[in-house]
Amino acid sequence: GEELRIKPGFFGRVTTSGALSDAAEITAGISVVTSEYDREKQLRAWVFGVDAKYKWKPNRNSALTIEGEYLNNHREIVEGEAISSSGGYAYVDYRFRQKYSAGAMFEYSQDANDSNAHVSRVTGFIGFAPIEETTLVRLVGDWTTPNEGDGFWTVTLQFVFSLGPHQPHNF
Fold first, then answer.
1. Using CA atoms, how far apart are residues 81 and 9, in angstroms rounded to an integer?
2. pLDDT tens across 16-52, in order?
3. Edge-first strand listing for the sheet containing 135-145
4. Is 21 helix (H, G, I), strand (E, B) or coil?
5. DSSP string, 114-154
């Protein structure tokens, strides 16, 4: 048979960031990735994304972070036909008294094969950082609403830590 030619994929990202004031910074970006996922039928998929993050740090003891991301998946299923699905999240985290934090997150995702099917999740959390920037203990509660069936709660106790030197950075 004829040898199938591999068509290359592509990934690109453009991001920018800047200071809005002495205490506030913002970053934003767009991304795209594409690849042929079925060589025989020569079908291609694309994922487009947009994201942003805002950080406000009025003093050493408190900070507010707000971020979000949206993704869209566009996939050919047969020559001339395609399906799309999307999802995203929004997140807010308020740090206070230098070592404590509280926040919330909302997530939404459509099924990759059926955009009428989706799942969503609402999350709340409280945290304590005994060693700033490298260690975090957080209690997280999630309410998940699946496409089918009843919604349910999940409670998680997280221990997050990083090893090695930590350089200061804006984001």
1. 20
2. 999 999 999 999 999 999 999 888 888 999 999 999 9
3. 10-19, 24-38, 43-59, 62-78, 81-96, 100-110, 118-128, 135-145, 152-161
4. coil
5. -TT-EEEEEEEEEEE-SSTTTEEEEEEEEEEE-SSS--EEE
